[in-house]
Amino acid sequence: MNKKNIFGALALATVAAFAMTSCDKSKCQVDEKKVEGKQAVPSDVKIAYVEVDSIMSQYKFCKDYSLILQKKGQNIQNTLAQKQRTLEQAYMNFQQKIQQNAYTREQAEQIQMSLQKQNSDLQALNQRLSGEFQVETENYNNALRDSIQHFLAVYNKDKKFGLILSKAGDNLLYADKAYDITNEVIAGLNKAYKPAAPAKEVKAEAKKK
Length: 209
Description:
Distance between the termini: 72 Å
Oligomer: single chain
Radius of gyration: 32 Å
Order of helices and strands: HHEHHHEHH
Number of helices: 7
Strand order of the largest sheet: 1-2
Shape: rod-shaped
């Protein structure tokens, strides 16, 4: 038995011995009423909820960075598609020259090896760009979560809600609209939001189209 387990066992034994010697059966009883009083949930707990779909569609941060991710994803697709077309055309030309006996055996082998390397490079590029896009998407999601949590922490200093729920689709079976604070939250988020330079540039380009 290691030291940590020994100390743990000794501590448990000490507690048990103290409990047995300090109270007899008639006196050592749990006051159930006091325990229940400590664990009882206050009856005046304030609850609110926020519509997640509304935040995604109306929060300027979401709209701006959706455009950024959309543009980046489209650029990746265009880059990969262009390289794929170039490689396919080179392979077709190679096949035609082979049929025309335009290459020596050594030349054909070298060109084939070059085409195979280009294909391997394209697959590696696909994986790298996809990984970068996934990381950027995760960073966006983390930034979105952090911005909402930070705002709610400040917002709730005055509101004093004991619980703020997120409502997405049918995850809440029933929610009275009286507890809906979505509009207040969106207004506060948009007021605090300061778009970064990339967001401004992408938004300006979108308006020109």
